[in-house]
Request: fold
Amino acid sequence: MRAFLEVSAGNVATTAVMDYYELINRRRMVRNFTDESIEADVIVRIVTAGLQGPSAGFSQGFEFLVLSEADEREAFWDCNEHNPQAESIRTAPLVVVPFACKDAYLDRYAEPDKGWTDRDEARWPVPYWYIDTGMAAMHILLAAVVEDLGALFFGIPSEDWPVLRSTFAVPDEYDPIGAIAIGHPAETRVPSSATSRDRRSTDAVIHRGTWQSA
Reply:
């Protein structure tokens, strides 16, 4: 089983191939980056991979703020006043902020083919605008691995949302579900919960036929 990532940049189409299971096994959160830059075509491939994420009703209610220039990233980090991780990952040469738009989903499901006649948020059992944007973010995390890069998904405290929106002219209806720092991993790995805790066993997580074990 192979994973293919193909993006057209100008007149050039590039394809990266990796065994899918190798890909997901290699993915981990990287918390220490070198300051080596990322080529422009690589950035295009990584970000475009996020567009392939599924969305309810094909609402496509997610968008990405891509910060690849030093002054853009500096402005972003300045917005993260309440984020304790911000200082340690500032060297990452690329930051992608996935934004979710609830209105896109409420509008889409009020259209005739969906059968709803209003935009009542109570109809939604879970907030699919966040779920779909999270899946789009995972596509970006995996694309970084294909490109032999490291990535870290981290949260943005809600206290920092207003200044983030103001700094980058983001409409109020878009919520940042977090941010992704991407770059070349440094040789020294920063310890995290993943290095101090064991992964749960498949028998503990996967329930076959019924939740209760025999």
